[in-house]
Every structure is written in structure tokens, then in C-alpha cells.
Amino acid sequence: MNLRSPDLGFRLSAGAFALALAAIVVAIGVELTRQSWLSITEFGFDFWRSSEWDPVSGEFGALPFIWGTLYSSFAALLIATPVALGIAIFISELSPSWLRTPLVFLTELLAAIPSIVYGLWGIFVLVPAVRSLQMVTPEFLRQLPLFSGPPLGIGMLSAALILAIMVVPFTSAVAREVLRTVPNTQREGAYALGATRFEAIRAVMFYARTGIVGAIMLGFGRALGETMAVTMVIGNNPQVSASLFSPQHTMAAVIANEFTEAADDLYLHALIEIGLVLFVITLVVNALSRLLIWTMAGGGGTAARAKA
Amino acid sequence: MRLPGLVLPVLLVSAVACGGGAPSGSEDGGAIDINGAGATFPYPIYSKWFFEYHALRPDVRINYQSIGSGGGIRQLTNRTVFFGASDGPMTEDQIAAAPGAILHLPTVLGAVVPIYNVPGLAADLRFDGTLLADIYLGTVTKWNDPAIARLNPGVALPADDIVVVHRSDGSGTTFVFVDFLSKVSPAFRERVGVATAVSWPTGVGGKGNEGVAGLVSQTPGSIGYVELVYAEQNRIAHGAVRNAAGAFIRASPAAVTAAAAEAAANMPADFRVSITNAPGEAAYPIASFTWLLLYEQPEDKARSRAMVEFMRWALTDGQQHCEALGYAPLPPEVVSLELAALERVAVS
Prior knowledge:
Chain A is mainly alpha-helical. Helices cover 75% and strands 1% of the residues of chain A.
């Protein structure tokens, strides 16, 4: 019994922590709903569909913010994923060992930079660069909806680029750890079958695929919630536009921007409902990625389960 | 995979937690702690005042959290702070929601100035309210538009597009700016209206004065608006604006005080007055008071006494600190009205 009791205490306290986490998530959901009740009852489902955001007349709709958040996060994911996976593969499979530690250190340093610093760098370095890129975009491309609008520099493209830079260290760090957990027998087996280096890496990637999806989703979650750096370069104009060049807005940015001065009750509730929408979307995205990992975990997902 | 689940709740919790706030300070051993919260615009002068006053009266310590006007009004209404501060007067609804009568006390003056980035311009630009309204409505879109050329004869204006920059965050700066534009342009009042955050028909949003100034300095052909204090401290060129009397005035603390002096003549008893587009030859038209908010019948009389004494000092001796920080001091007419109004606050 003497040996068992510390064990029991550990199990109880660890269980309590796990339950506390679940309780916190539920409490956040309940509180967000309660604090946004005015807006929920006033607008109902229209809140998700309306593009109107007018604090003066008390009309609130979240669509432009939902659009901007998903658009910027997906665009960031598209840019960041190949880069991050390339970094992870290079570090774990190809890099000479003397280069490995400095590379790991540098990518992880990116994750430690505060987002306000990214934002300032965005305004003073990235935005002018994006503007000059927009200036030289050929006219026939400018006709496409994806590149329409005046060359402001500020806008969706800048936001997606800065998000991508912020996401890369997260995705690459997890992907690297996942690749490291792939047993060496996998590589040796591939080489023994006469695989080239590329084919061997492909085999390793296949073995680690669920963990890599987990790494990508981690980056996506980071992009969804990022506020400060995005609001400084995205232009903060709530509109649903397909153009990478147009100023848009995100959910996290509108909360951060307007919360402090929202004295009117309905306005405040609408802002909190934006938070609720972001909460729901994040839950859905997490659930979907979990589902994706489960369906993929059919063959050889041990590395993934260790990490995901 | 846990991180997204964690980051988001932290963000949301911190957002929601702003509604709470610290309880008012406690009184022990004769020392008095007073807590306040509200507007960010007057924060530099308020913290200077509280510091100077604490040197004069070591037993009184005033703490101020610059959480924004909306937050200040909310916390005052919930009685979690002793006094609030706001860049816009409380609305009728907000006054009705408060548990007691609230006194609005103008403390200092602020002004909003148009800033622009037009490469190769030989002279400072001049604006009037209608032109600014049309630019911000998106109906004037080129720098060489006849409406701009008419106000700036002899200035060679480029044919570039105007990039409109406004504040993305709710702010008293926006409130003052759109209040002026709505007064002079019926179209603007109809389409946009007056609030700390509005639905802009055009343009890009920058966060804070620094965000707007950053965007304007980075974007050729842009126009924005910032606090006079911010423009002066950062030496940003700003344009002159035509006032109600027809004179083009470049903002300065003296021109702002002049606007307030004109308003003092018909000051309402509750001090909730807009001084944009003020009459008077020397008045700068985009100016506003910022208010400190006090309950007329506070429960804690010791704190109330200390606060009223502090306000007397701030409205008289305290005003000398304004100019060094870029604020415009109150005109003497307004100060004497306020000293009389302070009598309404119960101290015993």
C-alpha cells in the first residue's frame, strides 16, 4: 500500500489537471455565449452571413472577418508548408552535422520574436517590397480577380507572407521531431531495396505522414489566431475580396482593434460573438485535422501518434 | 496539436477579462488610493499630473489605467474604478445605464490633424471639411482633383490616386475627426456617422496613431489623420484646415484653446459639448475636450474629497504642464465654470 499511494496521488492530480483543461474550454465557450447573447439573439445566423459592420447604425456581420481569417491562414499555409517541410527534411535527412545545430537554433529563433516586432518589420520592410512587386505585376495578371486592386503594399498578400514567416518555425520544428522518430531501419530498408536518396526520403515522409499533417495543422492554428502582426499589415478593411492585393480584415484583428472603445452593449456583444465564431472555427479545424490524422493512421502512424 | 487550442482561449480570456478589472484602492493609515481608467489620449498628461500631485500630497496616490474610453465608461458604470476618462462624452444610453449622476469634467484639449504623403510637393496643403469628407467618402480620388486645386492655388498637384488611411482601432481621434466631417458634410453624416469606430467607405486602416503615421509615411499618395500631440512630437508635417470663419488654420495648442474659448460662451451645464467646427477667426476646427468622469454622489467620501481637491489643482496649477506635453490648456472661462461645477460632487 505504501508503494501504491504516491502512485494514486499522481494519477489523481494528473487527472485533475486534464479535467481542468476540459473545464476551461467549456467555461470559455459558455462565457463567450453568455457575453455575446444580445448579438446572438439580435442577428441569429445572419451574423455569419452578413458583410455589414457598422458600429454607428448597430449592424454587425462577421463574414468579412471569417473570410479574411481563413483566406490569410490558408494562403500562409500554402506558402509556409513547402518551406517548413524543406527545412525539416534538410535538417533531419540531408544536412551535414556541423550545420544542423545552427540551423535548428535559427529556425527556432524565429518563433521567439514577438509578433509586434514582425508587424513593425512588416510595415517598414515587407510592405514596401510587396508594393514594388505589385507595381511590376504585368497588366494581364492585374485583370485577374486574384491580383486586382491598386498597388498599396498593405493587404492580404503582406498578411499571408508575414503569417507564413511566423508559421514556418512551428511547422518545421514539429516536422523535424517527427522525422527524427522514424526508425533508421526504414531508411536502411529503402536503401537496401536500391532506392535513391530522394526515394528513401519519400519513404520516410510516408512513414511520418500523420505527424507531418499534425505539424501543418499546428501552423494553421497559429495562423488563425495571430493578431498583432496581421493587423499592422492587412489594411483592416472588412470586405470579402478574392484579391491578394486588397486590404482585408481578420477576426482576431477586429477584436483587438475595437474592443477597448466599444462602449455600446450590442457592439461589445457583437465583438465577443466574433470571438465565439473564432473559437468554433478553431474547434472545427482541430476536429477536422484530428479526423484526417485518424483516417491516415491506417498504416505506420506510430511516429505521428507520438507527436500529434 | 495542442497549441491552437491553447493560444485561442488565452487570447479570448484576456479579451473578456478586460470587462472585469481591479477593485478600487483601499484606505489605510490615512493614505488614500484612488483608481481610475479610461482614454489613452490624455494618459501622458494624467500620469504627469498624478506624479506631480503625489509629490505635493504624499498621502494621495492616484492610479490610472489607459484601457480606452469604452472600457473606462464600462468600469465606471460597474463602479470598479473611482473615476473614468473618455475622449467622447457619454451617450444618453450610457448615462441612463450608470447607477448615479455622472459629472463630465473637461481636463485638456486635443486636436486632430490631416497628414499626407505627396512626393514632390512644393508647399503645405490646405483642406476644408467638405474636401476631407469627400476624400474619406471616396468621391475625390485624385490629388489633382479640382476640389483640391481650388483650395491650393499655385501648387503643382500630381495626378496620383489618393490612398485613404484611417484608424482601424476604435479611438477618440476617429470620433473627433468624423464629428467634424459630419458637421460640415451631410453626405458624410448620412453615409458614415459619428462614433469611435465607423464603417469607412474606402481606404486602409492603421492601428493607433503610429499605425496611421507609419502607413502614410510608407505610402506615396496617402492621406491620414493623427492626434496633434503625436504629429508634433514626431515632427510630422500636417495640413491647414479651413475653420467656420473661413480662415485656414494650421493646428497648434493656441489655435485649439481658441476653439474651446469660443465654445465656453454657450457651454451646456453638463459640459458634454462638441467644439469641432467652432466659430472664431483663430479657432482650429478639428478639436475636442477630453473628459474625466466622476460620480456626483460617490459612496466613499474620503476619496471624493481627495479627488475634488486634485481636480481643483489639475484645472488651475496643473494646466501649466500641458504645453510641454503638446496638449492645449483649457481656456480660463471653461476652468471657472468647472470649478463651480465641482461643488456638485458630494465630499461629506
